Every structure is written in C-alpha cells, then in structure tokens.
Fold:
Amino acid sequence: QVQLVESGGGLVQPGGSLRLSCAASGFTFSRSVMSWYRQAPGKERELVAAIRSAGGSTNYADSVKGRFTISRDNAKNALYLQMNSLKPEDTAVYYCNAWGPSFTYWGQGTQVTVSS
Structure:
C-alpha cells in the first residue's frame, strides 16, 4: 500500500521558518523523483521544488528560490522542505508527490499559513 504522509505544517509569522517532512512507503522511494507542490485557495496546484532520484539534482519555482531547500534521505524514505523567510503568499496546502515512469502518487497535504 502506497503512502505519502506529510507533516510539519502550521501557522508561522512572516519571516519565519518551517520544515515539512514526507514519509513514504509502499514503493521504491530511492528510484522516484520527489517533489513538493502547493495549492492556495482559488489557485491551481503548482510545483514548488523537485529532487531527482540519482545525484539529487534539484529545481525550484522562481518564487521560492533562495528561500526553500528540498532534500531527501533515501535510507529513511523521507522527503523534506526547509522553508525560510516565509511570506504570506506562501500560504497554501503543501503536497508531497512521487513520480516514476509508470506512476505518480500524492500525499494528503499539510496546511501552511503565513500570517501575523
């Protein structure tokens, strides 16, 4: 049974930090491209950051470059997103995604709210 379980969301003030985690099971995590997406109210889901399976190369949305860092621990089947210098426009539900040639899986999402 495939599971992607996000955690670490919450309410934070502008300029603050959060670290999201995604615990994966039921598929070959180390061979999957892993990503974080987000969806704000009334907006489409968008890619925030992605990390390749081999070599760990990464890419980021322009809006988060220099503030967010994606990482993975293949030994723990875990994906992370370190979010610094958070802005109100970062408020959204954040989703963990796993992608392979024949599959794509989604977590249930975790809410991040940036507000004073």
About this structure: The mean pLDDT is 96. The chain has no helices and eleven strands. Residues 49 and 60 are 4 Å apart (CA to CA). The radius of gyration is 13 Å.
